[in-house]
Write a structure and sequence with these properties.
Layout: H1 3-28, H2 34-56, H3 59-62, H4 65-89, H5 96-118
Helix pairs in contact: 1-2, 1-4, 2-4, 4-5
The chain binds protoporphyrin IX containing FE.
């Protein structure tokens, strides 16, 4: 599976859970897990979908193992962070170290993504598919 298709699939699953959390908060008038809802939607839906668009526009990167690892790391970090943040705001403060570790996992995944964005662009190799248009 490519990094972009995994990103899009997981992002849609995350936003379905995130929206259900939002509806649950609104229905119960209990907004205590609001930070978890916000993190799930912004890390799991918005950011992950943006990664997917970036990868889909770069086919060589999209099929690379490191891009897939980046998406998996980001997704695991997001799930653990969301659960830990929800637990903290429900009074289970013992989960704070879990949230801390998850936040470092998410940061590590973002550093991998930063590497993709900042590394020098691969040189364009002339190929048989290159089209030459004569000057008029
Ligand atoms: C069915 C869809 C959704 C429902 C019913 C919903 C509901 C809610 C509720 C009830 C709150 C708490 C507001 C408060 O306590 O002040 C909230 C906060 C928030 N939601 Fe959603 N939400 C939904 C979808 C989304 C999506 C898709 C995103 C992001 C892409 C999002 C991002 C946020 C953020 C960032 C906050 C925190 C706002 C703040 O700090 O005041 N939500 N949402």
């Amino acid at each position: 599976m490519t990094a972009s298709s995994l990103s899009f699939r997981l992002a849609v699953l995350f936003v379905i859970v995130g929206m259900a959390m939002g509806i649950g908060m609104a229905a119960t008038q209990d907004h205590s897990i609001m930070p978890a809802h916000a993190h799930l939607n912004l890390l799991g839906w918005v950011s992950l979908f943006l990664f997917g668009i970036y990868y889909e526009r770069r086919p060589a990167l999209d099929t690379s193992r490191l891009a897939l690892i980046q998406v998996i790391l980001w997704s695991i970090g997001t799930v653990v962070l969301t659960i830990a943040v929800a637990a903290i705001h429900l009074g289970y403060t013992a989960t704070e170290p879990v949230a801390g570790i998850a936040s470092i996992v998410v940061l590590a995944a973002m550093l991998i993504f930063a590497y993709f964005v900042f590394r020098p662009a691969p040189a364009v190799q002339p190929s048989s598919t290159m089209r030459m248009t004569p000057a008029e």
